[in-house]
Amino acid sequence: MYKSSLKNSIMLIGVILCLTLIIGSTAFAQETTISFGHYNNEYSTAQLVAETFDKLVSERTGGEIGAKIYPGTMTQSPEEGLQFCQAGTVDIYVTSSGHLAGYYPHMQFFSLPYLFNNTRHYNVAHRSRPIQEILEGAEEKLDVKIVGMWSDHNGFAISSTKPIRNLEDSEKVKIRCMQNPLFLDMYEAWGFDPTPTDWGEVYTSLQTGLIQANDLGVYGQYLFNFAEVIDAMAVTNHYWSQFIVVMNRDKFNSLSEENQQIVQQSLEEAIEIGDQYIRAKEDAFIERAKEQGKTVTYPDLEPWKEASQAVYDKWFEKYPQWEEWYQSIQNMDPLKTEPKAVQADPDYWKKD
Question: Which residues on neighbouring strands pair with residue 36, listed in sequence order?
């Protein structure tokens, strides 16, 4: 009786141990952590996109997949961050189209002045065929999966220590911008003096007068504390460079087909939230700047666009495909499109 009971107990313990090992190994196999890095701080739009992705993907997989976020702590070098993603040290990384242009020149296309004329135009055209062709080419060149993009802080405004009310006010103003050829051509065409400045020195350089302007939007001035040392913002919306979200191919391919779809969808939705968030923040901080007594100007942009023609001519000659891409995108501006009947009768809408 005792031996039988002992035998049964041993068998029960064995069964429990087996079940524990099976359940434990299954749970372990189901836990997938996706490392998500970006070079901005934890108050930024990049952080919002990462946190939103983590929330969505965790909910949709019942906790099977989650994200570990590294905000600005992994590396301060966008180039190194890309290399980390290519090598699998980080699974997802956010960088800018300007930085990727060093590896794939067609990424510079996003920085053409006035590529998009307004927010409505951007919302329609940033998913267009030319944009998809560029992203697909970058994927192949960089050997990563590009899962989406959204507007970064650059190009919404020119913030300066003195007001810029028109194109003439930009003459000889020392502006900090990324030191790549297209940006230099653009600002020189408008009369600025592009001045190399390390990111970590922008605040003190504005404070001491070594530079007089930068090309972050108004929201960016507050996010990075530059609003403490600048007094004026000119709302120009002159270029629409992008944050590009890249993912390690091997990590993506290691997921089940169902989870690949969940990850892709969750990233796309998080990116859309980021795009709308940064636009809303830009509008809100323009109003905040006005309330604080800063000078906010809205220059007539036609002279700026006319001066940009020299930039188009130079870069379309260098990359002939860009001209077709550019024209295709310009044709998608919903504020410049009318039915042929209306075009033939411009006074149609004035009629009772």
Answer: 69, 92
The token pair at 293 is 């007594």
Rounded to an integer, what distance in angstroms lies between the CA atom of residue 209 and that of residue 191?
18
Give the integer Cα–Cα distance in Å for 205 and 330.
37
Q: What is the pTM of this model?
A: 0.82
Of 303, 161, 296, 152, nearest in space to 233 by CA: 296
Report the C-alpha gap between 37 and 174 in whole angstroms.
Answer: 32
Q: Cβ-count burial of 38 within 10 angstroms (0-12 exposed, 13-18 middle, 19+ buried)?
A: buried
> Which region among 29-33, 161-165, 231-235 has the lowest average model confidence (pLDDT)?
29-33
8 A C-beta contact, residue 247 and residue 92: yes
pLDDT in tens, 260-302: 999 999 999 999 999 999 999 999 999 999 999 999 999 999 9
Distance CA(125)–CA(240), nearest Å, equals: 12
Structural domains in the chain, CATH included, are: 31-336 (3.40.190.170)
Residue 147's closest CA among 226, 236, 248, 11?
A: 248
